[in-house]
Write a structure and sequence with these properties.
Length: 178
């Protein structure tokens, strides 16, 4: 059970929370428990939703790559909610088999992505777990693969955002709702 007692359920939402929930419901067909936790701070709820919308609208990193980033960052952080949710998204939204998802979790270099996105995925994982080990050579390899600094920055931001979400969800014991 969540440690937060002031989260707003969809049926009790009002004002800004109701407006954001309406957008989320239209897109995701549900209001996941972690999103409801954000209702404790309506402004952060809105900000978090805008981030999800932004990341999912980009071509590089693609929505599939972002989902892989979220899964693998969550796996490293041992955030069960996010591992299960993102694995399910890879299966249901991106037609990956459960075996492919398991292999991805075991060996991210097997990701079913083009080479450019695979390089970006591996870079993000390194950045999130070992930021001090990133070198000029790492950046150069990404640029030589055709990635812009904006694309690289946004992908790392996506991974860092997920790590922060893992901490929040685990701290407040988000209930699994899938």
């Amino acid at each position: 059970m969540s440690l937060l007692t002031t989260s707003v359920s969809p049926e009790n939402a009002q004002g800004l929370v109701a407006d954001v929930y309406s957008e989320i419901e239209a897109t995701w067909k549900m209001i996941p428990n972690p999103i409801q936790m954000y209702s404790v701070s309506p402004e952060l709820l809105k900000n978090q939703w805008q981030k999800y919308q932004y990341f999912d609208s980009q071509t590089t990193p693609s929505a599939k790559l972002n989902t892989m980033i979220r899964l693998l960052v969550s796996k490293e952080a041992q955030c069960d909610y996010c591992i299960g949710l993102n694995a399910g998204m890879l299966i249901n939204l991106f037609a990956m088999s459960p075996e492919e998802v398991q292999l991805l979790k075991t060996d991210p270099s097997t990701a079913s992505l083009d080479e450019k996105e695979k390089l970006l995925l591996l870079f993000v994982l390194k950045a999130v777990d070992h930021a001090h080990d990133i070198t000029e050579g790492d950046m150069l390899a990404l640029k030589e693969a055709g990635l812009s600094e904006k694309e690289i920055f946004e992908a790392v931001n996506s991974g860092a955002t997920m790590r922060a979400a893992n901490i929040i969800f685990d701290t407040f014991k988000v209930d699994i709702d899938y």
